[in-house]
Design a protein that fits this description.
The protein is of the alpha/beta class. It is built from 6 helices and 5 strands; from the N terminus they run βαβαβαβαβαα. It has a single domain, classed as Rossmann fold (3-Layer(aba) Sandwich). Strands 3-2-1-4-5 form a 5-stranded parallel beta sheet, with helices on both faces. The mean pLDDT is about 90.
C-alpha cells in the first residue's frame, strides 16, 4: 500500500546508483516522490546545485517507474521540514548504509520531529550491493583515477571525469 508524497533529500553530489536504488524502492511506499536536492553550500559541493538537479532529473527520468507512480526533482535551500510543508509531503525518506549513518540520521529525525511531528521519517536500508557507495567515496576514487563506472550512471561518470579535468587545469 502506498500513500501520499514523500521527500528523499540529499546533496546528490553526484547522484549514485545507491541513490537511484532508494528512489526506486521509495516508490513502493509513496505515490509521489520528490528528490530534494539541497543547496548545501556549507558542504562545498563539487557541482553547483543547478547541475546536481539536472543530473538527478536526467537519471530519475531514466528509471522504470511503477505505473501510477511519480518522481520529480526539486532544489531547496531552506529547512527540510519547511520544504516538506511546501511540497505537501508527509514522509521524509532516508537511506542508511551503516550504523554510522544511523547515529546521524537518528539525531536528525529527532530534531525534525520536534519541528513538525506530522511528518514521519522512513529509513530504507541500502541494498546489499550499494551499501558501500557514497558520493564522497565516488569523488575520491574518481579524482585518483579509479573507475567509478559501477557506482554511478554512465552520464554522471562522464560529468565527473570532465569536472576532474577542469580541476586539474
Amino acid at each position: 500500500m502506498s500513500v501520499g508524497i514523500g521527500i528523499y533529500p540529499g546533496t546528490f553530489d553526484p547522484i549514485t546508483n545507491g541513490h537511484l536504488d532508494i528512489v526506486a524502492r521509495s516508490l513502493r511506499l509513496v505515490d509521489h516522490l520528490i528528490v530534494g536536492v539541497a543547496a548545501s553550500d556549507g558542504k562545498s559541493p563539487m557541482f553547483p546545485v543547478e547541475e546536481r538537479v539536472e543530473m538527478a532529473q536526467r537519471e530519475v527520468a531514466a528509471l522504470d517507474l511503477p505505473p501510477g507512480k511519480c518522481a520529480e526533482v526539486r532544489p531547496f535551500s531552506n529547512l527540510l521540514m519547511n520544504f516538506a510543508l511546501e511540497c505537501g509531503a508527509k514522509f521524509i525518506i532516508r537511506g542508511l548504509r551503516a550504523v554510522s549513518d544511523f547515529e546521524y540520521e537518528f539525531q536528525m529525525c529527532g530534531m525534525n520531529v520536534r519541528l513538525n511531528s506530522d511528518i514521519e521519517t522512513v529509513f530504507l536500508m541500502a541494498s546489499e550491493h550499494n551499501q558501500f557507495i557514497s558520493s564522497r567515496f565516488v569523488k575520491e576514487v574518481g579524482r585518483l583515477g579509479g573507475d567509478v563506472g559501477q557506482f554511478v550512471p554512465s552520464r554522471v561518470q562522464k560529468q565527473l571525469l570532465e569536472q576532474f579535468r577542469k580541476e586539474a587545469r
